[in-house]
Amino acid sequence: MPAWRCGGDDVTWTYSDTIGCACAPTSRTVPHGRSRCSFPLQYALVIITNSVFVADLQELAVPTFRPRRTLAGIAGLSVAAALTLTACGSNPGSDELTVVASTNVWGSVAQAVAGDHVEVTSIITEASADPHSFEVSPSDAAKISSASLIVYNGGGYDQFVDNVLDSDSDDRAVVSAFALFEDEHGEADGHDHDHGHSHDHDHGHSHGSVNEHVWYDYLTVAAVAQAVADELAELDPSNADSYRANATTFTDELAGVTAIVDGIAASHVDAPVAQTEPVAQYLLDAAALRDLTPPDFLRAIENETDPAPAAIAATRALLTDHQVQILVFNTQTQDRVTQDIRSTAEAANIPVVEITETLPEGLDYIQWQTRTAQALADALAAPQ
Question: Which residue in 37, 145, 234, 375 has the most C-beta neighbors within 10 A?
Fold first, then answer.
């Protein structure tokens, strides 16, 4: 890669084998091929293999051109390489408080606590994105790496966050919902799950059959809100009282959701249900419902493989024979098998309760969970 000069000794130019970054403190003219391109104060020229990006250093690498390839498909570029971009484009002198969440679920919880003091950025906001297999872009890696506070699920659900943190040696404030779940439920594996001021590389990669969808465990969600308040209070002491008051308000609102679930448990204890995937298992457990779905069926759907014919037949029989009162259906992982199960339930007049893994558009966490819990209560109360 040629060592281009923009002119002037006050211009810093650093590059690696895969990423080059020209950081211009003043407006400069930078040669590129046969053309000449001018970049103002906060911009940088970023070269990733044969692709050229214009990155806003304040916005942390927002591209004007992005090839239609995933991060894994760009030759030689890894999360570590993406963080080279962060090192070049970050502003170490900035005291601005930044909070980044892995998904809009945890982003909503964090925003409820942060209030008007901090704007929370969520990496995954689209229902079509699967956090398990999400490939972080250089821009997203930069946001995570430079955040004052990171809030994520953990437990292997949003592994891309751990991958970025593993490539970044800086200590930072991290709140892992799964680590708090283990603390709250007494399932800690012996590691220190303090959500304090550093990423300790304990990601929960070996949790066996433990369900990582902990945003449906309201005790854990309340703990996350409190942990976010504690971290923000330390990062921004002048607004500490506000953060803690917001966390209390959020927890009070969450109690309204819990009340609906407690009502289900009181009225429909041990009611038999089926589900297409154990995403809302903690909600079903809290509602004292009994899941009859064959474990082999659930395991296959969760692993994105076809269930054995016997498992499919057994699941269909739960519906056609009216052995269950409702079907809980994850709308974000539909395939021909789960769609067939839903059609079978509808043909048998079995109520279908839809659940999701990310926030529906226009709803915050409390609104989303209130709607979900109420839909579950209404379906169970429907005439069979």
Answer: 145
